[in-house]
Amino acid sequence: MKATRVCDVLEHGAVGERCRVEGWLRSARHSKQRSFFDLVDGSSARGLQLLVSPELENYETELRHLGTGAALRATGELAASPGAGQHLELRVETIEYLAGVESDYPLQKKRHSFEFLRGIAHLRPRTNTIAAVWRVRNAAARAIHDFFQQRGFVWLHTPILTVADAEGAGEMFEVAGAEEFFGQPVRLTVSGQLEAEVGALALGRVYSFGPTFRAENSNTSRHLSEFWMIEPELAFCDLDDLGALAEEFLKAVLRALLEECSEDMAFFDQRIEKGLIARLQHLVESPFERMTYSEALKALQQSGRSFEFPLRWGVDLQSEHERFLCEEFVKRPLIVSDYPAE
Amino acid sequence: MKATRVCDVLEHGAVGERCRVEGWLRSARHSKQRSFFDLVDGSSARGLQLLVSPELENYETELRHLGTGAALRATGELAASPGAGQHLELRVETIEYLAGVESDYPLQKKRHSFEFLRGIAHLRPRTNTIAAVWRVRNAAARAIHDFFQQRGFVWLHTPILTVADAEGAGEMFEVAGAEEFFGQPVRLTVSGQLEAEVGALALGRVYSFGPTFRAENSNTSRHLSEFWMIEPELAFCDLDDLGALAEEFLKAVLRALLEECSEDMAFFDQRIEKGLIARLQHLVESPFERMTYSEALKALQQSGRSFEFPLRWGVDLQSEHERFLCEEFVKRPLIVSDYPAE
After folding, report:
1. Nearest CB to A203 within list B42, B161, B204
2. B202, A42: Cβ pair inside 8 Å?
3. Residue B176 forms contact with A (CB below 8 Å)
4. How far apart are CA B92 and CA B76, in angstroms?
């Protein structure tokens, strides 16, 4: 019998069906009559409850003593679950104990700090939070591709090793010894813009989506040394078209997350950032506001707020200005056009 | 009126329909009664034929003199085309001349060598061959994602900057000055395997698909300094499962190219590699052969061929051996299992 993924069991399984699952023990409870195992396989935030009878032949020798993280293969019959939080459970007929973990396995059924998890990078994807981050990131990446592919954009794999600095987009890492290799100094890209522009002028619509680098040693939430960036480039497109595309894009990606990752997003809403889902729902449902630079400046000047960065016609808008405009003035995303030419 | 892409005009356009197209002039022919423009926009290998009357008001001042590469916006009515190679053409009512090119524009309606094109990297995507490569590469990348996403794999963006050398997979580029930045020497990844293995042991099924590097200064068709690599990792999977997945994967991606890029593939078959389509069709339709290492060795030893690398039990199979087995012995793809342990 082929194994079924836990997400498929929970979504499509029926009472009375026989099935096999493979995964890891997230927690176990033992009573005299039976044990309850919570088995996860990474396909869902939810686990499948296994009902384990002491009559199984390896119960006393193995199953009674399993620790969190043990790898198992279980076969049995699906039954309606009387417990809270699940509608199905597996009445186990056999369990193979495939591999165990050290007795000092550091992940337990409790909240671990991110700092602690940073020290066990090989295990942290097994936590609810990090696994949810990876599933949501995957769904976002898929939605990004779907959005562009459905609109005829060509995905360009723009180079990482480059001599172009994209109009000084940021500090660049340099590759050691590149001169003897390439005949000139080579750095890690800060933007695929140059290649994407070339691509757009041949293929019409392209996007880059790949790793990007900044050699800026700042420990803020703004900059990572390495991150994935999306850069669409379109020929025959004006600023209004581009604003409309940006709005559609953000909404399509967020809508996909809310629909396809509802459990993981509910987990984030509950444990990581209260109000997250309502905020994203609001964004998805609101038409973005449009304003010219001059209108934006006027709104800021008439706000009565004092800002750290002074306001006069010609200055770049700073984060504090953007936040006031979006969060307090128009209360939704805002696209500002007609910036003064540099 | 919004512009329609050339691929959509050719596929869905109907005689009598009014439409607008935007693109670049690939070639022009002039007669006394009219001009014929071949307009491409990168959405298709094919262009749309524009029928341009000398009565248009900018005919003598602009249209008569346009060179290859000029950017145009044309509006008109679709008509049945009497010419060969197309079923529709656009009877132009207005043409806007948006931008021209220098009079020494290097791309002409003739075959350019790849070496020549290498020197004009900003223009070569406008050639039929390179544009087709990009469209086909995009379709392959999309098919790769679709394959894994449909099977519940999570796409991991494994790091480029790394201290891991993936069991010595290849020579690594080093990042200059990384020690003061990261506190230790940092290199460019040769494989996302380590992170993907960690991911698979938490999420069950993952794949990496991103840039990978080799600091090996070899000018062969085998190695690039930078290339995109795909690495699936699965928990609870044996070698037979993995072989089946590899076979399904290759077939799914090639089938997508043959179906979705039929024009570009036909172009490659005609101009770049005769027999390409038949070869790929054969691969898609054949069940892959399976053989153990011992069987493969026996077939090689009994072949009567002389090979450069000597054959005895325990040696790694070399390219010459693999080619003989696939191309001459089983005449289709081959998966060899039960390699001797190292």
Report:
1. B42
2. yes
3. yes
4. 4
Q: Does B163 touch chain A (CB under 8 A)?
A: no
DSSP letter for A123, please.
Answer: T
HEC readout, chain B: CCCCCHHHHHHHCCCCCEEEEEEEEEEEEECCCCEEEEEECCCCCCCEEEEECCCCCCCCCCHHHCCCCCEEEEEEEEEECCCCCCCEEEEEEEEEEEECCCCCCCCCCCCCCHHHHHCCCCCHHHCHHHHHHHHHHHHHHHHHHHHHHHCCCEEECCCCEECCCCCCCCCCCEECCHHHHHCCCCEECCCCHHHHHHHHHHHCEEEEEEEEECCCCCCCCCCCCEEEEEEEEECCCCHHHHHHHHHHHHHHHHHHHHHHCHHHHHHHHHHCCCCHHHHHHHHHHCCCEEEEHHHHHHHHHCCCCCCCCCCCCCCCCCHHHHHHHHHHHCCCCEEEECCCCC
Count of positions (residues) in chain B: 342
Task: Take residue B231 and report the two structure tokens written for it.
Answer: 């690495």
Contact list, B97 vs chain A (CB under 8 Å): none
Tens digit of pLDDT per residue, chain A (342 long)? 899 999 999 999 999 999 999 999 999 999 989 999 999 999 999 999 999 999 999 999 999 999 889 999 999 999 999 877 789 999 999 999 999 887 788 888 788 999 999 999 999 999 999 999 999 999 999 999 999 999 999 999 999 999 998 888 889 999 998 888 899 999 999 999 999 999 999 999 999 999 999 998 777 777 789 999 999 999 999 989 999 999 999 999 999 999 999 999 999 999 999 999 999 999 999 999 999 999 999 999 999 999 999 899 999 999 999 999 999 999 999 999 888 876
Distance from CA of A181 to the nearest CA of B (A): 7
Chain A partners of B160 at a C-beta cutoff of 8 Å?
160, 188, 211, 213, 226
A vs B: CB pairs below 8 A: 159
Q: What contacts B341, CB < 8 A, 6 or more positions away?
A: none
Output the pTM of the full model: 0.94
CB-CB: which of A71, A134, A215 is closest to B203?
A134
C-alpha–C-alpha distance, residues B175 and A175, integer Å: 5
Q: Tokens 């449009």: give the residue.
A: A290
CA of B311 to nearest chain A CA: how many angstroms apart?
Answer: 36
User: What is the DSSP pairing of strand A187-188 with strand A161-162?
Assistant: antiparallel
Name the residue facing B159 among A161, A199, A226 (closest C-beta): A226
Which ipTM did the prediction report? 0.94
- Which bin fits A108, alpha (ψ -120 to 50), beta or left (φ > 0)? beta
* Minimum distance, in Å, between the CA of residue A12 and any CA atom of chain B: 15
Of A73, A175, A202, the CB nearest to B42: A202
